[in-house]
Every structure is written in C-alpha cells, then in structure tokens.
Write a structure and sequence with these properties.
By secondary structure, this protein is mainly beta. The protein has two helices and 21 strands. About 15% of the residues lie in helices and about 35% in strands.
C-alpha cells in the first residue's frame, strides 16, 4: 500500500513537471509567433579600387555593391553602388554634384541605364559625403541559377567638368552574385520605386531608386456599397534605400500619399490614402514610413483584386515634392471578398386620415330610482365560465412541474459530489 501511494505521488509530480514544460514550450512558441519576422537582407560585396588623377586625392577606395536577395528571370533589379567619402584636391568655386560612372559587366543580364549617375554634393571646402547610386540590370528570360555582376572602371568627376579621378578594381575576377528566384526578390512585396523631385529636378541625389517593402492588409468584413479599409504598411528594404529630404521640402504638415489599383465587384480602379510624416528635416534621410489607411467602396458582391501603386510625399497628392512611381508589372496582388450590404429599411406607410367632420347628437333624459341592497360578503370562487375557454386550474392541480426539474438537478449534483468523494477515497486507500 505504501509503495502504491509513493508511486501515485511520483506520477503526480511527473505530470506536474510535464505540464509546466508544456506551458513553457507553448509560451515560447507564442512569443516566436508574435515576434515580427526579420526581412531578408540584400546580398552585398565590397571591392577594392586604386585611384589616380582628377579632382580627388584618394589613392584607394573600398566600393560596396549590393543587390536583392533574389531576382526573377525576365525582370529588372537594381545594383546599388556605395562610394565612400572623398577628399577634394581641387575644390569647385561653387557646390556641384558628384558624377559617378561605373562600368558593369553582368552575366545573365544587361545594364539598361549605363552612364554617369549623380551622387552627393561636392562642397567648396571639406570632403564629399558618401554617395549611393544605382544601375538597373535586366535579367535575361532564360537565366537560371544566378546573375553575376562584375564591376569595372570607376570614374569620379565634379559636375560637368571633364577632369575625372579614375579608379580600377584590384581584382578582375571578383563578382557580385544575385540568386534567381530563391528569396524575396522582385515580383513580390518588395517594390523597386523610381523617385523624382517636383519638375524632375536633379538635386539631393535625385532621381533615385528605392526598394520599399509594401504589405497590404485586406478587410475581412467588406460589404457592397460600404467603405472597406485597407492598411498599407511599408518600410525601406535597407538604409541605402532611404530617401533624402531635399531642400525646400515642406516641413509643415507633410504627408505620405499611397495609391492602390483595384478591380472586381464594382470597385473603383484607383484609391488613395494619406498619413502624416514626422521628424522631417531637409538634408536628412526619411528613415521610417507610417501606416496608411486606404478606403475603397465596392458596389456589388464578389472578389476585389488589389495591387500597390505609386507613392508621393509633400502637402499635395497631385503636386507632391517627391513622387515615387511603381513598376506596372511583377507586383504582389491581394484579394478580399465582398458580401451583400444591409438592405435599406422600407418607408413606413402614411396613416389614413380619419373623418373628423362633426356629427349631430341626440340627447335623451331619463329618471332612474336606485334601491340600495344590504351588504354581503361575497364568496371567493374560481370557476370556468360555461361555453368559454378554460382559464387554468392554477393551484388546484397539485405540484408544479418546475419542482420536479429542481429536484432532479439537485439529485444529479449530489451524485456528482458523491462520486468525487468515492474516487478520492479509493485513490487514498
């Protein structure tokens, strides 16, 4: 008997430990599920260069090339080029943009916009801040495995000056490899935006390419002829994609404007939402993007297909300070279902007016004599009227059925308590 009781206690302890372990595993799993996933980073590689001549005194540079973690055959992607800080040997008389020209030789694709790119401003004194420029690589439709991009000669000039510092790669075999179709890449929720300033100005590193990850959250209870809210969440894919706030950008109540394209269930072809931008300062990068609510009103039941579109920044959606154009194909699509809307209540019928015309009345006069009767105490009886409906016997029929229900419930509860007591006693026995 003692061994049996010890075994039971040991089993109870093991069960408690196991339950606690299950609870810890469950809590850990819930924490992992609740933690936002980390976006895949771009593929990045550094290349050593030796330089000579021209307006800059740097004799060596470390240039960084980066691309998306994967690309799709037949699509286009950006190779971003980071040029480090430069020392000006012959400063210009007036500030002018740095002109960056990098030769690229991709395997599995072609450069679609070769030539000079505008970098940071070259001041009249001091060094030139690091610059980020980008080149577009069009991937051949039959490419499989990867695209290899080999950097070549790098030329650095000030403005339109013909004098340039020439830099050559220390290695002629190093390449940047971008995989085909194994990660996020183009064609998903990472959108390659082409950003321009108002009037197509070329200051502050614009035009610029920016990869922005866009996620749309669809409504779950959309109804016909009612506004459905779509949440637009976005973030720059990397720090090199962040947009610089140009000189003259409105810092009083600036906004971000997000556009979507829609089709199906009688939805409008386009819709727009807006949200306020915070911590905006000219010359600084725009690091975070607020969520935007876009409302769309379908007019019939069915399925609505939604695609993210252009972005704009400023105080006007039609005349923004910065406009970022999305590609017309290869974007992720979203859908939501539209149910029947609530029917409008029918109007109440108008009441029929009654005839209020006065009618003549006849008055009769009679004399009545009332003889009082002696007071008697009436007998209280409950009878069923003859030839009438039964009114019920009430208390004359005996106990109410609810008494049996309550008694039965009490008996069931007593049986349950007794069973528990017997089980506990048998376990202790």
């Amino acid at each position: 008997m003692l061994k049996s009781q010890a075994w039971r206690r040991r089993a109870q302890k093991t069960f408690a430990v196991g339950s606690m372990g299950s609870l810890v595993v469950f809590a850990g799993s819930a924490f992992i599920m609740a933690t936002p996933g980390v976006a895949s980073a771009d593929v990045t590689k550094t290349f050593a260069y030796t330089c000579s001549g021209g307006p800059f005194s740097n004799t060596s540079l470390t240039v960084t090339l980066s691309g998306p973690d994967s690309v799709t055959a037949g699509q286009t992607f950006d190779v971003k080029v980071n040029v480090p800080t430069l020392n000006v040997q012959n400063p210009p008389d007036a500030a002018a943009p740095l002109q960056v020209t990098l030769d690229l030789a991709p395997t599995g694709g072609t450069v679609s916009d070769s030539g000079a790119k505008q970098g940071s401003q070259v001041p009249t004194n001091g060094s030139v801040p690091a610059s980020n420029v980008a080149y577009k690589i069009a991937v051949s439709s039959g490419t499989t495995g990867k695209v290899s991009v080999k950097p070549g000669a790098l030329r650095l000039a000030i403005g339109t000056a013909t004098s340039a510092t020439t830099c050559n790669p220390s290695s002629t075999t190093d390449v940047l490899d971008v995989p085909i179709g194994t990660g996020n890449g183009n064609g998903t929720d990472i959108i390659d935006y082409d950003c321009q300033l108002a009037n197509n100005a070329t200051a502050n590193g614009y035009p610029a390419d920016a990869k922005i990850r866009v996620t749309l959250t669809m409504p779950t209870n959309a109804k016909a002829n009612a506004d459905a809210s779509i949440t637009w969440a976005s973030a720059f894919q990397s720090t090199s994609d962040q947009l610089e706030i140009p000189t003259g950008f409105p810092t009083t109540s600036p906004k971000i404007y997000a556009n979507i394209k829609a089709s199906g269930a009688g939805a409008p072809a386009t819709a727009r939402g807006e949200a306020a931008l915070t911590n905006v300062q000219a010359g600084q990068n725009l690091t975070t993007l607020p969520n935007v609510t876009v409302k769309i009103k379908p007019t019939s039941t069915g399925t609505v297909t939604v695609t993210p579109g252009d972005l704009a920044f400023g105080t006007s959606a039609t005349s923004p300070a910065i406009k970022c154009t999305a590609p017309t194909s290869g974007l992720k699509t979203y859908t939501f279902t539209v149910a029947n809307g609530t029917a409008s209540p029918s109007p109440s019928p108008s009441p029929t007016p009654s005839n209020t015309s006065p009618r003549p009345t006849t008055t009769h006069t009679r004399t009545l004599t009332i003889t009082p009767t002696p007071k008697t105490t009436p007998t209280r009886k409950s009878q069923t009227p003859k030839a009438g409906a039964d009114t019920g016997a009430g208390g004359t029929m005996g106990p109410d059925g609810r008494l049996f229900i309550l008694t039965g419930t009490a008996m069931i509860g007593a049986a349950a308590v007794g069973g528990l007591l017997m089980r506990r006693r048998s376990i202790r026995g």
